[in-house]
Amino acid sequence: MSNPTSTKPDTVIYPITDRVKHSLEVALRSCDELLVQDEFVQKLARSEATKTPLRIKLGLDPTAPDIHLGHTVVLNKLRQLQDLGHTVIFLIGDFTSMIGDPSGRNTTRPPLTREQIEENAKTYYAQASLVLDPERTEIRYNSEWCDPLGARGMIELASRYTVARMMEREDFTQRFRNGVSISVHEFLYPLMQGYDSVALKADLELGGTDQKFNLLVGRELQKEYGQQPQCILTMPLLEGTDGVEKMSKSKGNYIGISEPPDSMFGKLMSISDILMWRYYDLLSFKPVADIKALRADTEAGRNPRDAKVMLAIEVVDRFHGAGAGQKALETFEARFRDGAIPEDMPEVTIAEPEIGVLKALRQAGLVSSGSEAQRNIEQGGVRIDGEKVSDKGLTLGSGTYVLQVGKRKFARVKVG
């Protein structure tokens, strides 16, 4: 290996090897944005030249006890980087959870009590270990350095970031313009998340696209504390089984990674054919070339169900062990041979007093468009609670319904 060159006494430029290029390719796969790419390439090159793993951080607030497939989009990327030999830091935000993060919301997220946080955190790491290699994962809690700060330390930290910069955050700006209150404590959340990067000396931080502002604060605070700023890798937010909203337990469109194999398989089979490719991009470990070839075959006439079955088997096997996906497929097919409605299916809540059947089918993720919904009704392929639907203008009032499209797509829909 050639020796690194330097253009300045304190600036070392390391050689970009094939391994560095491969590592960058792994990092970029399916990501939304990598900031700043040139800096990250040099971090990779430095790591290889000095045999020093990068410190890669992911912070999750234990706001709920269960992890779903939406969370694993980032966890999968973390595992890929871990397999390249880098140090993964799984940070549980037990301190920041008590503040409440308004990211992507126009109101604050209610803070949790210490008891709620501790209860949720018990299962977080155990579930994350289904994706990460626990023997190569550093687990930390941000109360380790946030609690000792005290009032004096908090004020000193706050002095390192301006209100003008804080108001660049989109949701703060919108709320201010709309006259919606912003509590002072909300400014503390991105500050504390950024301080986590200082405490951990992170080289790279991962997060969803809705966390970009908070991750950038970490970069700026590291500069303030005399550290090399971390790079940022954001991953797309995975839509839930409805194909509309991002996956969320509160919206009932999630697939939990600790769900039984049959339930997980059934929910994956219920997603639309269009959404399936999004899931392939963000959840599958298959080579990109293989996914492209499979998609080309499907567009050329192969039954999309084949591709969906392959995806469902892959995901179920990942969380329940080799062979679990095939067994779930056999159970799934047996239910339909018997003509029975499956016990496990996606659950969708529609917060409206009533809704037209066409719109309900779309929001349930059973069809991708209104025209597809009409076509299925005209062909006699739509049932509600087992009864065939022929009226395209049918309105569903408040209540819970089992919607079915064809023989294999089901959703339990709660209206009202």
UniProtKB/TrEMBL annotation:
A motif ('KMSKS' region) lies at residues 246-250. Keywords: Aminoacyl-tRNA synthetase, ATP-binding, Cytoplasm, Ligase, Nucleotide-binding, Protein biosynthesis, RNA-binding. GO terms for molecular function: tyrosine-tRNA ligase activity. Pfam families: S4, tRNA-synt_1b. The keyword Cytoplasm applies. A motif ('HIGH' region) lies at residues 62-71. ATP binds at K249. Its EC number is 6.1.1.1. Residues 355-416 form the RNA-binding S4 domain. It catalyses: tRNA(Tyr) + L-tyrosine + ATP = L-tyrosyl-tRNA(Tyr) + AMP + diphosphate + H(+). Its main location: cytoplasm. Transmembrane segments: none annotated. It is found in: Cytoplasm. PANTHER family: TYROSINE--TRNA LIGASE, TYROSYL-TRNA SYNTHETASE. Belongs to the class-I aminoacyl-tRNA synthetase family. TyrS type 2 subfamily. This is Tyrosine--tRNA ligase. It comes from Orrella daihaiensis.
